[in-house]
Amino acid sequence: MKPYVVRVALAKVGFALAKKASRNQTWFDRIARRVLERVLKFNFDLDEMVLLDQGYDPDELERYQNRR
Length: 68
Prior knowledge:
Largest sheet: none
Shape: elongated
Helix content: over 70%
Distance between the termini: 45 Å
Low-confidence stretches: none
Order of helices and strands: HHHH
Structural class: mainly alpha
Strand content: under 5%
């Protein structure tokens, strides 16, 4: 088990990456998203829960991510 200080520091880095990744506006935001995808083994763009959601609109998601 990792020491408490290391776990807290990793959690803070994870929150910072998640905050950046959710914006998806700059190149650093996109890098943060890719880093989280690799670490968590999760594809934000192709998540099954998102694709199976009946209210899911891919165009709306793209407009939201691109802030149009």
